[in-house]
Amino acid sequence: SKSIEEKFGTLSTSSDTELLSKKLLEGLENGDLPSAVRLCMKDIEGSFSVVGVDNDGRMFAFRDPHGIKPLCFGQDKDGKLSCVSSESVGLSINGLQLDSHVKPGELLIWSEDGLSKEQIVAGEKKAFCSFEYAYFARPDSILDGKTVYKVREEFGRNLGRENPDVTEKADMIVSIPQTADDAAYGFHIETGLPWERSVRKHRYVTSRAFISSPRERDKIINKKINVSRREIKGKRLAVIDDSIVRGSTSKRMIRKMREAGGEEIHLYITFPRITSPCFYGIDMSTYGELIGANQGADEIAETIGADSVNYQSLENFIKATGMKRDHLCLGCITEKYPTPLASKLANKARERFEEGSEGRERIYEAADLAEEIT
Ligand code: SF4
């Protein structure tokens, strides 16, 4: 950001969109749109999926060379209206057809002459965010040719196959709505256990608990999720959820289920254990806050008050996505990040955490480290 500030003055926001648009402007000073996008792809490391309109009224879209986050495009049935969306569902709900996904490192420009595509940067390691499959993507979106909810059903089947003893340990399945519902269906099909829809989500509370402050999180969960005592009282529960980040949301959910009379609570988690932060735009805690960075499944169970915690294996998770392992970003699970700066940040953050000097801020917010790392 230093060179940008020298050229354009102090950034007025902490938004990466401002940084990226100024980088584009810098490139446009001496060149055309493709060369400006090339400059962005060369100088900015990380995840970006960009859509814009230039001065000539042309719409353009590009995606970082690793393709960390999704970006797709489509058109209406007459081919008169083109649209870009982060997920295919953004097209279908507007009556548009999905054409394709923007390739990592590719630039698309729509002008009066039609659509032109240019591969600006090629050959970088593909690294699509694996957390999209477990949590972020809408279930009815299509990622890499697969409908997301089908992948989640397979996650559930995998969990059932990996834990054949569940039929002795639990009387029924419940799922944390809504991201875990599809996995619960797969788990139900695989194990034959009844799936009780006794944990329900408030239709109008849409805030996401894990990206809020602790106080807000409490309020959100209480308002958002309700547990039906009548169905779960005295029952041993196999609870399906998508992920455990800090553990605080799971802890509150388990407390609610115990208060409602749940006898035993065994958690089955579709996303493998999160052991390190995300540096690609998802505000996913520091090492100190991430429960999986510090504890294994048994310790986590004890901390959050569950009888057991069972994660889907990484191998089966990858298989269910249908993606090649080396085409996925698995950074927050394996601590192997697809880009060098993220690896440096992770090393530094872990070092600080182990020394006991990790602050409350995210590592990339620690101004004193910026120079040291870059
Ligand atoms: S580190 Fe995790 S959440 Fe972040 S982009 Fe990679 S897989 Fe997604």
From TrEMBL:
It holds the Pfam family GATase_7. This is Glutamine amidotransferase type-2 domain-containing protein. Keywords: Glutamine amidotransferase, Transferase. Signal peptide: none annotated. The keyword Transferase applies. Residues 1-113 form the Glutamine amidotransferase type-2 domain. InterPro entries: GATase_2_dom, Ntn_hydrolases_N, PRTase-like, PRTase_dom. GO terms for molecular function: transferase activity. The keyword Transferase applies. It comes from candidate division MSBL1 archaeon SCGC-AAA261F19.
